[in-house]
Each structure stands twice: as structure tokens, then as C-alpha cells.
Specification:
Layout lengths: L14 E5 L24 H12 L9 E2 L6 E3 L7 E2 L2 E4 L6 E5 L3 E7 L5 E6 L1 H6 L1 H9 L6 E5 L9 E2 L1 H8 L9 E3 L5 E3 L1 H12 L3 E4 L14 H4 L5 E7 L1
Parallel strand pairs: 2-4, 3-5, 9-13
Antiparallel strand pairs: 1-14, 5-8, 6-14, 7-8, 7-9, 10-12, 11-12
Length: 241
């Protein structure tokens, strides 16, 4: 499978993570080529083949979630297939936490001892609603012992939003104003990476890595729902050996 992203962060050696891109699969048309989502209209057989190829890189089948832009974090080891949640955590080896994205922000977490991992799907609604806080709490580790990595999301020069989005973040967190740049017509450019970092820092998670991608602008590499509408999804995955 080509062009996976391996996070560059100081995680323990037995903690593994990767993010898929558009490359390496068999899907066609707007889903070309490594779409891993079953809910976007792609051919189910193509998705199954893409997931089979991904599985070759993993110790077990990922615990796929039915993501709903909420804040529920579940135990990946006991979650039923298709569980409605937006984050999962694991404290056992060879349990693969996974989230699917195409502009929303994937947040991967581990503790410095490598005894717990988590993956969160943080679109603006989930991020404002507390999905990162829920994932950190579900890990049951001191936040100051955690490391976070921010995966591919829509970048701060492309994510235009209205007042309602800005107000959702500023409610109770005035520092979030620094993550919004005014645009004409009462719109704002929002920096999901900065917003997530502010929330992680507020929890006590000071070691935050990654960021710097833009799914909207990097069309050859990433799916983007805002750019294309009908499109595929990438997976961000984390597990312990």
C-alpha cells in the first residue's frame, strides 16, 4: 500500500500509527483509489479490497466506528462493529483504534509508557463539543503523560466558516479567538490544528505533534469533502504491539 503517512512523534517503540492517503487502492471515480468508507456510495467490493490491503499492515481488523460528529469515546476492545461514536481507546495490545476523515481532524493519542492509545474524529462540531476531552478522559492516564499527533485535515487557509462556528469555540474559551482570521462577508478562516492544540493544552497535554497538512489543497494526496462533496475517506489508526 503506497504513500501511507507514519507519524513523526516520540511515541514508545511498541506504539504504531499510520494514516492512509488516496493511493494504493482499487476504488474508481471520485473515490479513487484507497477509499475505506462504506457509507459514501462507493462499490462495496472495492472498499472490501481496500480494507483487505490495509489489514495486511495491521495486527488485527480495525475497530471501525459509525461516526456521528459527536463526543462519545468507547473502549475499542469491547465496542461492537459499527458502534456510534467518534473516538475509541485501547489499553490492550493488538487492538486497532481507527477513525475515518476527509477534512475533519484525526487526533491520535498515546501515553509516554505506551500503556494506552486513542483515536478521535474531530470535525469542528466534535472538537467544539468535547470529543478530544472525552478521548483523553477515557484513556484514564494523567494528561501530562500523554502525547498527541494531529493528522491530515483541512488547513487554516481553506476552512472558511460562519459566526456560529467561531461562537461555538469561544463559548467559555476566549483564547480560541486566536484561531480565527476574519474574511469578507462576515466569514472566518478557522485553524483546526490550533483549536485542537488549545484544547489539548488546556487539559494538560503539552506535547502535541503533527499538523501542517491541508486535505483541501492537496488534492492528489487526500480526499476532501469540502472540495469534492462526493468522495472517499482516509483512515488514521493507532495500536500497541
Amino acid at each position: 500500500m503506497k504513500d501511507c503517512i507514519v507519524p513523526d512523534w516520540p511515541a514508545p517503540a511498541h506504539v504504531h500509527a499510520l494514516v492512509t492517503t488516496r493511493a494504493g487502492g482499487v476504488s474508481r471515480g471520485p473515490y479513487a483509489a484507497m477509499n475505506l468508507a462504506l457509507h459514501v456510495g462507493d462499490d462495496a467490493a472495492a472498499v472490501a479490497e481496500n480494507r483487505r490491503r490495509l489489514r495486511l499492515r495491521l495486527p488485527a481488523e480495525p475497530r471501525w466506528l459509525e461516526q456521528v460528529h459527536g463526543k462519545l469515546a468507547v473502549d475499542a476492545a469491547s465496542a461492537q462493529p459499527g458502534c456510534r461514536a467518534d473516538a475509541s481507546v485501547a489499553g490492550a495490545r493488538e487492538v486497532v483504534c481507527a477513525v475515518l476523515t476527509a477534512d475533519c481532524l484525526p487526533v491520535l493519542l498515546c501515553d509516554e509508557a505506551g500503556s494506552a492509545v486513542a483515536a478521535a474524529h474531530a470535525g469542528w462540531r466534535g472538537l467544539a463539543g468535547g470529543v478530544v476531552e472525552a478521548a483523553v478522559a477515557a484513556m484514564r492516564r494523567p494528561p501530562e503523560n500523554l502525547l498527541a499527533w494531529l493528522g491530515p485535515a483541512i488547513g487554516p487557509q481553506a476552512f472558511e466558516v460562519g459566526d456560529e462556528v467561531r461562537e461555538a469555540f469561544l463559548a467559555g474559551a476566549p483564547a480560541a479567538a486566536a484561531a480565527f482570521t476574519p474574511r469578507a462577508g462576515g466569514k472566518w478562516l478557522a485553524d483546526l490544528y490550533r483549536l485542537a492544540t488549545l484544547r489539548l493544552n488546556a487539559l494538560g497535554v503539552s506535547r502535541v505533534f503533527g499538523g501542517g497538512f491541508c486535505t483541501y489543497r492537496e488534492a492528489e494526496r487526500f480526499y476532501s469533502f469540502r472540495r469534492e462533496g462526493r468522495t472517499g475517506r482516509m483512515a488514521s489508526l493507532i495500536w500497541m504491539e
